[in-house]
Amino acid sequence: MTPATTGTDGQFDPRLPAAPDTIAVYTDLNCSFAHVAVHRLHETRRRLGLEGRLWFDLRAFPLELFNREVNARPGVDSEISVLGALEPGAGWRLWQGPDWAYPVTTLPALEAVHAAKAQGWHASEQLDRALRRAFWAENRCISQRHVILDVAAETGAVDVAALAEAFDSGTARPAIMAQYESARDGRVDCSPHLFLHDGTDSANPGITAHWVNGGFGVGYPVIDEDRPEVYDKLLTHAATLL
After folding, report:
1. Mean of all residue pLDDT scores within the chain
2. What pLDDT sits at residue 203?
3. b/e 42-51 (16+ beta carbons within 10 angstroms → b)
4. Dist CA 68 CA 93 (whole Å)
5. Contact 141/151 with Cβ under 8 angstroms?
6. Is 35:203 a contact under the CB 8 Å cutoff?
7. What's the CATH code, domain 22-240?
8. Which end of the chain is more exposed for a tag (fewer CB within 10 A), N or C?
9. Contact 112, 127 (CB under 8 A)
10. 191 close to 61: Cβ distance less than 8 angstroms
11. What is the pTM of this model?
């Protein structure tokens, strides 16, 4: 499932999905904008009757590596009421656990999502979506191995023993780092950023925002524009490539 396709200039482009039935989705698990995007991708695919025809290749855009620091809880908390109002059905709740239980890294969970791809796109998609809900709606520490495996078991779509074996062997870490490298130097704008097989891409689809009274972790976001219909256009176009 390693992408091996070319861009419009004929050169190898690791950001693009390997097959036309797949959409590459660069995200982090503790990014609120990505939580909205992934929810909309799943709901739009279902509504358009494209389940089983289009798949989502969830790629790592690890904010902690780009920013060289933990994705700060004050910034994450400040986004919940704003982004939650756009898609309340995605599942949101302010962190209710103790401060020391707050996830300090998403790299293990990102590795698990990639490792699940060995079981098929469906398994990986379901684990990714369940981990997002575990963090955003259930306040679970998705940095921890046992939490990741518990969430995997709850999906009913993942072979947990096989996932644990792959996860413990570390076989997914090189892929996560390769995805990070493919996104660096402005090649991927943000979490989320979508890429189709033909080179079509969309960063934070349909949403533009700015920060007031300081940046992330200090101020709060204001949504300037929200056009969820962009997802219909993206998935409809992806379906024409099949």
Report:
1. 95
2. 98
3. bebbeebebe
4. 26
5. no
6. no
7. 3.40.30.10
8. C
9. yes
10. yes
11. 0.94
**CA–CA separation, 127 vs 216, rounded Å?**
28
Q: In this structure, what token pair is assigned to residue 215?
A: 């940046």
User: Hey, where are the domains in the chain?
Assistant: 22-240
Residue 184 identity (one-letter amino acid): R
User: What is the percentage of the chain residues whose pLDDT exceeds 90?
Assistant: 93
Nearest CA to 105 among 64, 59, 58? Answer: 64
State how beta strands 22-27 and 55-60 pair. parallel
Q: Which of 60, 73, 81 is nearest to 124 (CA)?
A: 60
Half-sphere exposure of 171 (CA within 13 A, CB side): 12
Contact between 152 and 110 under an 8 Å Cβ cutoff? The reply is no
Give the contacts of 25 (CB within 8 A, at least 6 positions apart): 37, 38, 41, 56, 57, 58, 59, 192, 193, 194
Q: What six digits make up the tokens of 92?
A: 């949101």
User: In the numeric block, which tokens belong to residue 33?
Assistant: 């904008």
Strand order, beta sheet including 55-60: 55-60, 22-27, 193-195, 201-203
Give the per-residue pLDDT at 12.
84
